[in-house]
Amino acid sequence: MRVWQSSIEMVTLIYLMTKAFPKDEIFGLVSQMRRAAISVPSNIAEGYARGTDKEKLHFLRISSGSLSEIETQLMLSFNLGYISQKEFDESSEFITSVWKQLNALIRTVKKRMPVQD
Question: What is the DSSP string of the chain?
């Protein structure tokens, strides 16, 4: 699945970027960013391992929430001077791409679900 592959690339990007963060952030921002990043492909995979579209949608929405966390953490990383403007812009662009793919998948799954009263 394309969104899963893209999110794996995003995790790699986050890991490489946070390697250069100050050592005193290893249990703070670095840990938070890495956990949020890993959550995206992990929840996509878990959702697709479940049997129903309702369960898939639940896990896809968790992935979406994790992307929101990463965006916030990237802004904070930039504000603290841990990443450059270029790194911020490239990362944000990549996350937006993953977000668009994930939202398209969410819409597709929702369309397959029966209408709720």
Answer: -HHHHHHHHHHHHHHHHHTTS-GGGTTTHHHHHHHHHHHHHHHHHHHHHSSSHHHHHHHHHHHHHHHHHHHHHHHHHHHTTSS-HHHHHHHHHHHHHHHHHHHHHHHHHHHHSPPP-
